[in-house]
Write a structure and sequence with these properties.
Structural class: mainly alpha
Oligomer: single chain
Number of strands: 0
Keywords: Membrane, Transmembrane, Transmembrane helix
GO cellular component, one term: membrane
Pfam families: EamA
Number of domains: 1
Shape: globular
Order of helices and strands: HHHHHHHHHHHH
Family: Belongs to the EamA transporter family.
Organism: Ethanoligenens harbinense (strain DSM 18485 / JCM 12961 / CGMCC 1.5033 / YUAN-3)
Distance between the termini: 17 Å
């Protein structure tokens, strides 16, 4: 069953990137992150009350709560970096780096969760690294969103690092906890973190400048994120982190397809080879 939830997570995560890219086109990325997190929070707690898991909140141990908070903080940092990178660069360049967090996750899972990597995992990691490198190479022709600089790369790398930490901390935090409740608690931390940054940067007045189209896509990206999270942490609770994470990263296929259709971002020949390597490497991780 965890496999179906992992695939669902990949689908909704892939849609999130495209919806968010459109939503933050004319909006400050940190403000958009804070706004969309409200949608995620409302959705996640709605599910908690629907399944009745709020009744188990007093059973959460201090250890689990600490790790859920740390996981939420890592998620918030990853989101802020990821959507800043999306605002500065092309989706088909930013997404591969973010998904390369799989490599670091496998390493951390080995060090802290004692999940022993196999030979196939080693092959998968090599293919992922090679594919990611090819996908972020300069395009043969500039795309409409090409800003002509590499500032997006810094934020994309940070996003990947924090995403890897999120998976490991989240895996520990949701042990013995209903997955929907764990997701909802983490989201509170993300929301607080995002709004503290917005208030600190004095970006709140910019809410008045957000157009209707941006509001719609920010809301839709938040909803897609909520669905992805619920699937992801249910899969993470039932399956191995070193297997769930790679499947979730197949969302890059959804992202690349929709970036071509919706955003008109075209992959170069090297990028196509890179995408093939990333997918092949991801599949190798599942053996």
């Amino acid at each position: 069953m965890w496999l179906l939830f992992a695939l669902g997570s990949a689908l909704f995560a892939g849609l999130t990137s495209i919806l968010a890219k459109i939503g933050i086109k004319n909006t400050d990325s940190n403000l958009a992150t804070a706004l969309r997190t409200i949608i995620v929070l409302l959705f996640s707690w709605l599910v908690v009350f629907v399944v009745g898991s709020q009744r188990t909140i007093d059973l959460i141990s201090t250890r689990s709560l600490v790790f859920l908070i740390l996981s939420g903080a890592a998620t918030g940092a990853s989101w802020l970096c990821y959507f800043k990178a999306l605002q500065l660069g092309d989706v088909n360049k930013v997404a591969p780096i973010d998904k390369s967090s799989t490599i670091l996750t496998i390493l951390l899972a080995f060090l802290f969760l004692r999940e022993t990597p196999t030979l196939w995992m080693g092959i998968g990691v090599v293919l992922l690294a090679a594919g990611t490198y090819l996908m972020i190479q300069r395009q043969e022709t500039k795309t409409p969103n090409d800003k002509g600089n590499k500032s997006w790369l810094f934020y994309a790398v940070l996003s990947a690092v924090f995403a890897a930490l999120t998976s490991i901390l989240g895996k520990v935090g949701i042990q013995g906890i209903e997955s929907n409740l764990g997701t909802a608690i983490r989201t509170i931390v993300v929301l607080l973190m995002a709004w503290i940054i917005v208030l600190f940067q004095k970006k709140l007045p910019l809410v008045k400048t957000i157009d209707k189209k941006s509001w719609i896509f920010i809301a839709l990206s938040g909803l897609a994120t909520g669905l992805s999270w619920l699937c992801y942490y249910r899969a993470l609770q039932e399956g191995r982190a070193s297997l769930v994470v790679p499947i979730d990263k197949l969302s890059i296929v959804v992202t690349i397809v929709f970036s071509r259709i919706v955003l008109k971002e075209r992959l170069s020949k090297k990028g196509m080879v890179g995408l093939l390597l990333v997918v092949t490497g991801t599949m190798a991780l599942l053996f």
